[in-house]
Design a protein that fits this description.
This protein is mainly beta. It has strands spanning 5-10, 14-19, 32-35. The chain has a 3-stranded antiparallel beta sheet with strand order 2-1-3, with no helix packed on it. A hairpin with a 3-residue loop joins strand 1 and strand 2 (14-19). The protein starts with a strand and ends in a 23-residue tail after the last strand. 2% of the residues are buried.
Length: 58
């Protein structure tokens, strides 16, 4: 997280409130969602390996 706040809910891990300076790892295939993002939220996403496929659940 570069700026702002957001709540991250990850399968089997519950909910984490994240703010600037926090980091998190989402393993391939894990279902997750984000909610309650502040207006100034900025995050840096790094996906490894490059072939990683995103699976968003709405």
């Amino acid at each position: 997280m570069l700026e702002g706040t957001v709540s991250l809910k990850a399968e089997g891990q519950g909910t984490r409130d994240l703010s600037a300076g926090d980091s998190f790892v989402i393993p391939e295939g894990m279902t997750f969602g984000m909610a309650g993002a502040s207006e100034d939220v900025e995050l840096l996403e790094v996906a490894l390996p490059a072939e990683y496929r995103f699976m968003f659940k709405r």
